[in-house]
Write a structure and sequence with these properties.
- The protein is elongated, with a radius of gyration of 25 Å.
- Helix 10 runs antiparallel to helix 11.
- 75% of the residues lie in helices and 0% in strands.
- The longest helix has 18 residues.
- It starts with 30 loop residues before the first helix and ends with a helix.
- It is mainly α.
Length: 318
Amino acid sequence: MKVTASALPLVVPRSSSGAKEHDFPVGRPTIERLRKLREQLFKKGKLPQALEVAREVAGRAPGRESHCRLGVLLRESGQLRDALKILRDALRFEAGPDYLLPEIHLHIAHAWLLLGERKRVGESLRRALALRPRPRTEAALRHSLGNLLLAQCRYPEALREYTGAFGLYTEARRRAGVAHNQGQTLLASGRPEDAVPYAKRAIEISRRCGDLSGLGVARKLLAGIHFSLGHFRQAMGMYLRAAQCFRVTGARLREAEASHGAGYAAGELGLWDKNKACQDRAIHLAERSGHWQVEAGGLACRATAWAFMGDYARAEMD
C-alpha cells in the first residue's frame, strides 16, 4: 500500500548562510517561483544553486514532481546513490501526476547505467514500459532499452525496440538517430546489406532537418557498411564526406576517426599518397584531442604507406 506524502521524511532545507551566494529569493517565496528558479538555474548549468533550490522545494512541497527533480539534479551532480534514494522515494508518493511514474523509472535506469549496473537498468526500463507511458516518454524508453540490448549483443531484441522508438518519435533528429542505431545493429549482427537502407534513411533525415552532426555520424556508418562489403572506393568517399561534416561542426575526435577510416580504405585501394594524407590529418587531430587509439592506428597505417612508397626510414620512425 502506498504511503501519503506526509508520511515521508522531509528533505533538509537549505542553510541560510548560503542564500546570498546562491541568489536565493529574499523572504519566503512561493513554491511556483522556486520551481521556475530551479529550472532556470538548471538550464544555465548552475547545478549547486539549482540543487539548493530543489531541496527547498522538496522540503516545503514533498511529492512526485519535487522529489523527481531533486533526484535528477543529484544524479547530474554526480551524487548517484543519493539520487537513487530520492528517486525511489518519489515513487512512493500518491500526490502527483501519474505520467511521472514511468519518467522516474527512466531516471532511475539512467542512474544505474552510470553506476555500471546493466541488469538493474533493464529492470527499471521494463517497469517504466509496463506503466504505459506517454508516447514521447515511451520513445525515449524504447531507445534507451535498445541501446542497452545492443551493448549486450542481443541484436534482434535491440532492433525490435529501435523500431518501436522510430514509430513513436516525432522529432526528426531523434528519428535519424534511431535509424542510425538500427543500421548499426544490423551491421554488428553481420548483416551489412540489410543495414544500408537504414543508414541511407538516417542520412536523408539528417540532411532534410539540417543536422550536420547527425549527417556526419550517418555517413560514417554507411562508410563502415561499404567497407564491410568490400566497396573500398565508396567507403573512402563516404568517410571523407563524414569528416567534412565533423570539420564544420568542430567535432575533432569524430573527424579524426573518419579521416583514419578514409585513409585505411585508401590503403586497401593502393592509394598510398591518399592514405598518408588522411592519416596525417587523423594523427594531428588525435594528438590535439588526446585520443591515443586513433593516433596509434594512424601511425601504424602511415608507416605502412611509407613502406609501400619505399621510404623505410620514415616507416621505422612511425
